[in-house]
Write a structure and sequence with these properties.
By secondary structure, the protein is of the alpha/beta class. The protein has one domain: Class I glutamine amidotransferase (GATase) domain (Rossmann fold). It contains 3 helices and 11 strands; from the N terminus they run βββαβαβββββββα. It has helices at residues 69-82, 92-101, 200-214; strands spanning 2-5, 25-28, 39-42, 87-90, 104-106, 116-120, 125-128, 135-137, 147-152, 175-180, 185-188. The protein has a 9-stranded mixed β-sheet with strand order 2-1-3-4-11-10-9-6-7, with helices on both faces. The chain has a two-stranded antiparallel ribbon with strand order 5-8. Strand 6 (116-120) and strand 7 form a beta hairpin.
Length: 219
């Protein structure tokens, strides 16, 4: 099995795939066609351009207008969706996946700068790494387009701000892992690549990824 990873010098694990190497052979997407991969991984990093989800920037938004990364990774996602190739997004990658699936982002929040507990849909509790000031906001999308698989065990943020710093509606939960079945994408807000492979959260993410890769084509 070949798993392509989008390269970013500051954020990509030394082996390209972090714990996802346990699922297949790393393939650098700078030199390989997305369509030749069995799945692709998009890593963490700076904020994405809010124009991707139809918003203007919050004063604390750290996207880089001169970077080609947004355009490159959007291309990878479009190619993957076109060819029904599973997508795994981690941190920034998760947020980009959410935006490309039709969701939005909370552009600034607090309380998520350290490890914390998350609760899964089936009632398990795991400790996840955490280092982000933005958050996936799939609320408002049709229910069949997203499935929140895990969320923060408590609401850790005291603010949810969008464009121009305006307050957004308080979400029911703070999403941590979201499945976007229409584009066959798994969005993981934490950083399993920062954790030991045997950690329960990492093993759970790997099980979800195996399930995703094994799924049949979405309707």
């Amino acid at each position: 099995m070949k798993i392509g990873f989008a390269y970013s010098a500051a954020d990509t694990p030394h082996n390209g795939l972090g714990p996802f190497q346990l699922l297949g052979t790393p393939v650098d997407l700078r030199y390989s066609d997305v369509t030749k991969c069995d799945a692709i991984v998009l890593w963490g990093g700076t904020d994405i351009n809010p124009a991707i989800y139809g918003a203007i920037p919050h004063p604390m938004n750290g996207y880089n207008p001169s970077s080609m990364r947004d355009e490159t990774e959007q291309f990878y996602i479009r190619r993957a969706v076109e060819h029904n190739i599973p997508i795994i997004g981690v941190c920034r990658g998760a947020q980009l996946v959410c935006a490309m699936a039709g969701g939005k982002l909370v552009q600034h929040m607090n309380g998520h700068g350290s490890d914390h507990d998350i609760v899964t849909k089936d009632g398990k509790v795991y400790q996840s790494s955490s280092s982000h000031h933005q958050m996936m906001y799939p609320f408002g999308m049709p229910e069949e387009c997203y499935d929140i698989l895990a969320w923060s065990s408590i609401k850790r943020s005291t603010k949810y701000e969008g464009e121009n710093g305006n307050r957004m509606d308080t979400p029911e939960v703070e999403p941590e892992v979201v499945l976007f079945p229409k584009i066959r994408a798994l969005a993981i807000q934490g950083h399993p690549e920062w954790m030991e492979d045997e950690e329960p959260f990492v093993q759970w993410c790997l099980r979800l990824t195996r399930d995703l890769i094994g799924e049949k084509e979405c309707a």
